[in-house]
Design goal:
heterodimer, A: alpha/beta, FAD/NAD(P)-binding domain, 6-stranded mixed β-sheet, 4-stranded mixed β-sheet, 26 strands, globular, B: Fumarate Reductase Iron-sulfur Protein, Chain B, domain 2, 8 helices
Chain lengths: 611, 272
């Protein structure tokens, strides 16, 4: 392999989804910025997000950012850091208007303002009866293509602003010197050439890692490259045990049917035709939080009440069903839904069902099962998106993280729908500004002349090793053990099994190589390296799940079914210990206090999480 | 638990079970031949066909079958893919002679025992099914695909009626997969033609009531390599995996150029 190409930019952004592009727009206004992405930006998985983006605009129903903050904290089962959540919910309103000014084509109310819809977990106190809560219309939407519209709009603005892109450059390493981040090393996929990007500030915005699991809504590209590579450099992973399984994935394929289906009135039925959510969440029913819904489906299936005894249930969005149960917000105004309404609001979901199931959801219910969807955990950051090097909260100079791959934490143990898109734009913007600020106040610092050496070694090793076993087997076994033993429900025995298995898989991974030895578009090599990332993240996930001996949010332990606020009201920090071990530390949850009767009390007191 | 039952009859069958043979209960796997056009710039002087035998599950997409072959038989097969459900636009390919997204086409909907897969036409082939997308994205960038509005922004949202929003809804669906442009014979004949996708993305802004750049974009398209190379062949509309009425969008832009009027609800912007 020849010598690498060198580049120098004050800010480097890795990843071109919502968070990365938003950061690029802000950083590039002030300092030389480049976006390095292994995909063309419009291919990023932000584009698959459907339902909406939450902000308390009060365009249809009276709402407030405090309501939104409370819902988010409760939704996260209280291990949410409260200061950044208040920032998230307050700045959400401004960010929505910003997006609209950039041209985002939101759906509109009859009087021309941004339309909002109901979504799981988003509530307000019932007017006139504040001790009770009801669903509120907070999710701003563009049909059920909101993520697609956000991604397109941000990319369009990047074109307008002349942001520089390195498309199809795959980051393989960080350049860390004396505990500081000074750049990245990436491979130019089209030529196999290595590139060293010397920078003052680096943002990791590489997205999630659902490909750890067998049934997932995530794209092939979502392999957690940012968090995994940072982890290998001694940077911790926070809250990895909190992984969200979205209740309505298309059976076997894992493709997501948006929560908007339930927001607009869809009902879930088991094999006996029962609306089982009435038992598990008597108040919110289908609009309970996602982890509650996924567990409910899982329990119904375990009890033999899946459809025809199988491992799926039905999601029914037919007008006659919605009208029969009066589950749509339209029913509040005494109206019924019709096919035209469903077609206009849920066109993408209808399309997915028709294409992949051959089922017309206007005529028949759809088979669904929980699908691995969102990582609440990831690379830990402070509220300014600066990466933390330990549980004590020390910052890594020059390194930032935002989006799904980061853990601020604003989602705690479970994320509410429509809060991810808000997270991207609010913290993407903060990251862009913080990176630019840092770059303006610091000089470039030296990097070693052979910054690419570890990467070259890694690639050469992968190419030199004989293919003793197809690495796809290793990946399949990883995805299976994670789905079975570290999925919706976990227990001590299963986690121990997963722990052992992941360690075994790592050994097998390191002994085998790949078939394709070429340099041009060697996708075999890149998928192999991505698998390495997934294995490391899986090990940290299992270790974190083992350490949290309680059930909270998306993390459900059959052997510890209750929430334990005495011992576990904290965040989990997984640190690399030697070559294969993981060390666990804890970091307290950030709590906001207010004055009440001359005393300091928590603004969001702990409560039992019921829907 | 609610007393009421859902409005469908619970029979012994469900759509998922339909995939199995009713007599044996076994999944009906299908034996197929995958015929892929290979080209390795480091080894080959020209492209050549290679065949692989594979078994497909009834719910498999063409992408699933391609990936199976790649993982189990030859991991040097190069293709782009990401979301695997028709939204990112990475895996546009020519399958049995028609442009489509490999992840949107189910194997059960492809006739015959052989599925032929080749890269899309009109763009330089880099390796196997991967083409150079730069010319495509350059054409897209050339039409100013971003909102132009120099008025000071209000503190809240700019207003737009549902009718105004609906006017350009179709062309907002574009995922830049290139199925349309690379199905277009005038584009095959001349790569300088801006192509259907670029025109669709110009349309999305020209007919957006909040945009003020229609005049400039129409000027850019008013060129022999711009909109006037379109011969209304309709291949673009057939190829679009998002169901966008591409030819119609192109004709609306042509009409705006000819009449000097961009017809938007409640607002007819007359161009000088």
């Amino acid at each position: 392999m020849s010598t690498p190409t060198y580049h120098r930019f004050e800010s480097i952004i890795v990843g071109s989804g919502g968070a990365g592009l938003m950061a690029a727009l802000h950083s590039s206004k002030e300092v030389g910025t480049a976006v390095v992405s292994k995909l063309y930006p419009t291919r990023s998985h932000t584009g698959a997000a459907a339902g909406g983006i939450a902000a308390a605009l009060s365009n249809i129903e009276e709402d407030s950012w405090e309501n939104h903050a409370y819902d988010t904290i409760k939704g996260g089962d209280f291990v949410v850091d409260q200061t950044p959540v208040e920032i998230l919910c307050r700045e959400a309103v401004e960010c929505i208007y910003d997006l609209e000014h950039m041209g985002l084509p939101f759906d509109r109310t009859p009087d021309g303002r941004i339309s909002q819809r109901r979504f799981g977990g988003h509530t307000r106190p019932v007017p006139g009866n504040p001790s009770k809560r009801e669903p509120v219309m907070r999710a701003c939407h563009a049909a059920d293509r909101t993520g697609h519209m956000i991604l397109q709009t941000l990319y369009q603005q990047c074109i307008k602003q002349g942001v520089q892109f390195f498309d199809e450059y795959h980051m393989l390493d960080l350049v860390m010197v004396d505990g500081e981040c000074r750049g990245i090393v990436a491979i130019e996929i089209a030529t196999g050439r290595l590139h060293v990007f010397h920078a003052k500030s680096v943002l990791l915005a590489t997205g999630g890692f659902g490909r750890m699991f067998k049934v997932t809504s995530n794209a092939y590209a979502l392999t957690g490259d940012g968090p995994a590579i940072a982890y290998r450099h001694g940077i911790p992973l926070e809250d990895m045990e909190f992984y969200q399984f979205h209740p309505t994935g298309i059976y076997r394929l894992g493709i997501l049917l948006t929560e908007g289906c339930r927001g607009d009135g869809g009902i879930m039925f088991n094999g006996k035709g029962e609306r089982f959510m009435e038992t598990y969440a008597p108040n919110m029913k289908e609009l309970a939080s996602r982890d509650v819904c996924s567990r409910s489906i899982y329990q119904e299936v375990q009890a033999g009440r899946g459809v025809n005894g199988k491992d799926f249930v039905y999601l029914d969005i037919r007008p006659e069903t919605i009208n029969k149960f009066k589950s749509s917000p339209l029913h509040k105004d005494g109206k019924d839904v019709d096919e035209h309404f469903i077609e206009s609001r849920l066109s993408e979901s209808l399309e997915l069902s028709r294409t992949y199931l051959g089922i017309d959801p206007l005529k028949e219910p759809m088979p669904i099962q929980p699908t691995a969807h969102y990582a609440m955990g990831g690379t830990p950051t402070d509220f300014e998106t600066r990466v933390l090097r330990n549980a004590a909260g020390e910052v890594v100079p020059g390194l930032y993280a935002a989006g799904e791959s980061a853990c601020v934490s604003v989602h705690g143990a479970n994320r509410l729908g429509t809060n991810s898109l808000v997270d991207l734009v609010v913290f993407g913007r903060r990251a862009g500004k913080a990176m630019a600020q840092y770059a303006k106040s610091h000089d470039f610092r030296e990097i070693p002349s052979d910054a690419d050496a570890p990467t070259r070694k890694q690639i050469n090793a992968a190419l030199a090793k004989p293919r003793t076993e197809p690495w796809i087997r290793i990946r399949e076994e990883l995805q299976t053990v994670m789905m079975d033993d570290c999925g919706v429900y976990r227990n001590t025995e299963g986690l121990a099994r997963a722990h052992k298995k992941v360690a075994e898989l790592k050994g097998r991974y390191e002994s085998t190589g790949i078939q394709d030895k070429g340099t041009v578009f060697n996708t075999g090599l890149l998928e192999y390296l991505e698998l390495g990332c997934l294995i490391d993240l899986a090990a940290a996930t299992v270790a974190s799940a083992e350490s949290r001996k309680e059930s909270r949010g998306a993390h459900s332990r059959e052997d510890f079914p209750d929430r334990d606020d005495v011992n576990h009201f904290n965040h989990t920090f997984a640190m690399r210990d030697g070559d294969t071990g993981t060390k666990i530390e804890n970091r307290p949850v950030d709590v906001v206090y207010v004055e009440k009767d001359g005393q300091k009390v928590p603004k969001y007191p702990l409560e039992v999480r019921k829907y | 638990m609610s007393e009421s039952t859902p409005p469908f009859a619970l029979t012994g069958t469900d759509r998922v079970s339909d995939l199995a043979d009713p007599n044996t209960g076994q999944i009906r796997w299908r034996d197929l031949t995958l015929r892929i056009k290979r080209y390795d710039p480091e080894k080959d002087r020209e492209p050549h066909w290679q065949e692989f035998k594979i078994q497909a599950h009834p719910m498999d997409r063409v992408l699933d079958v391609l990936m199976k072959v790649k993982w189990e038989q030859d991991d040097s097969i190069a293709l782009r893919k990401s979301c695997a459900h028709g939204i990112c636009g990475s895996d546009a390919m020519r399958i049995n002679g028609q442009n489509n997204l490999a992840c949107k086409l189910l194997v059960q909907n492809v006739k015959g025992k052989t599925i032929t897969v080749e890269p899309i036409l009109g763009l330089p082939v880099i390796k196997d099914l991967i083409v150079d997308m730069k010319p495509f994205f350059d054409h897209y960038k050339a039409v100013m695909p971003f909102l132009v509005n120099d008025d000071p922004a209000p503190t809240t949202e700019r207003l737009q009626t549902p009718e105004q929003r609906a006017r350009f809804d179709d062309t907002t669906k574009c995922i830049l997969c290139a199925c349309c442009t690379t199905a277009c014979p005038p584009f095959w004949g001349n790569r300088e033609y801006v192509g259907p996708a670029a025109i669709v993305n110009a349309h999305r802004f020209i007919f957006d009531s909040r945009d003020q750049g229609a005049g400039e974009r129409l000027d850019i398209l008013n060129d022999s390599e711009g909109i006037w190379r379109c011969r209304t062949v309709f291949n673009c509309t057939t190829a679009c995996p998002r169901g966008i009425q591409v030819t119609q969008a192109i004709s609306e832009v042509k009409r705006a150029l000819i009449t000097g009027v961009v017809d938007i609800p409640e607002e007819a912007e007359v161009l000088s």
